[in-house]
Amino acid sequence: MTETYQKLLAIKKGKQCGFLVLLDPDRKSPAMLASFAKRMEAAGADGFLIGSSIMLSSSLEKTVKAVKKAIKSPLIIFPNCAGMLSRAADAVLFLSLISGRNPNLLIEEQVKAAPLIKTLGLEPIPTAYILIESGNLTSVWYMSNTMPIPRNKPEIAKAHALAAEYLGMKLVYLEAGSGAAMPVPAETVSQVSKYVSIPLIVGGGITDPSYARRIAQAGASFIVIGNVLESDSTDKTARAFSEAIHSNGKIK
Ligand code: 1GP
């Protein structure tokens, strides 16, 4: 069962870089998130991740159902623990936080989640989650109790990404953390994307379409934008991100 993963590969093939929007169920009601997702899709989003580092609200199932009804593109769960699942989603990023040395997030949560994912009939997408130092203490850094990779050491990120590929993982997610002061360096994206052959998702702290364009040019397969779109009442920012991410390497 790899239908959603195949859709992601088709997006990457057709557009070179895909634009994913992060939906945080803790920040808006299901109805509000559904109408926001619909607008983001109209503005050019290719797909959606739904998740939160803490998940205070208990409305994930309701939110996933509402968003799913409102959009046509893939809706993928971006979980923070084994229980964060919904059968209404298209897939779940089956994450292992491989930059950390916390056994709970390397394998324990996965062992708990696997039987649930099977029972729900959800598509798991094996994903290597790699935290990159981003200047401030982000929620994911604090909550995961792991050290991120130093931002001036792309060779360490490369080694982790290659290990993930050799372990059979299907995606690498280079994460600065939602709301990061500094996004993943373009140089790291460039070096990692040249070094491995699996698609690369990049996110965290990207607030400027011109930086998204740089990351796309550096070889990202997907760029995730969250925070900066939440106050985007006119969708102008989303359209600017879409244009930049889909520019197919054109310099502006
Ligand atoms: C975090 O990449 C996402 O995983 C989104 O980050 O909210 O900082 O855009 P932002």
Question: What share of residues is helical?
Answer: 40-55%
Count of helix runs: 10
H/E element order: HEHEHEEHEHHEHEHEHH
Backbone structural class: alpha/beta
* Total separate domains: 1
Looking at the structure, what is the overall shape?
A: globular
Q: What is the CATH homologous superfamily assignment?
A: FMN-linked oxidoreductases
Name the CATH class: Alpha Beta
Give a quick account of the main beta sheet: strands, pairing sense, barrel closure. Answer: 8 strands, parallel, barrel
Mean pLDDT: 95
Low-confidence stretches: none
| Residue fraction in strands | 15-25%
Characterization of the model:
- The longest helix is centred in the middle third of the chain and has 18 residues, at 103-120.
- The radius of gyration is 16 Å and the shape is globular.
- The protein has one domain (3-248): TIM Barrel, CATH 3.20.20.390.
- The protein has helices spanning 3-15, 30-42, 60-70, 103-120, 139-144, 154-166, 186-195, 209-217, 227-230, 236-245, and strands at residues 18-23, 47-50, 75-77, 91-97, 123-131, 171-175, 200-203, 222-225.
- The chain is built from 10 helices and 8 strands.
- The mean pLDDT is 95.
- It starts with a helix and ends in a 7-residue tail after the last helix.
- It is α/β, with parallel strands linked by helices and 252 residues long.
- Strands 1-2-3-4-5-6-7-8 form an 8-stranded parallel barrel, surrounded by 8 helices.
- Bound molecules: SN-glycerol-1-phosphate.
- SN-glycerol-1-phosphate binds at residues 22, 175, 178-180, 203-206, 224-228.
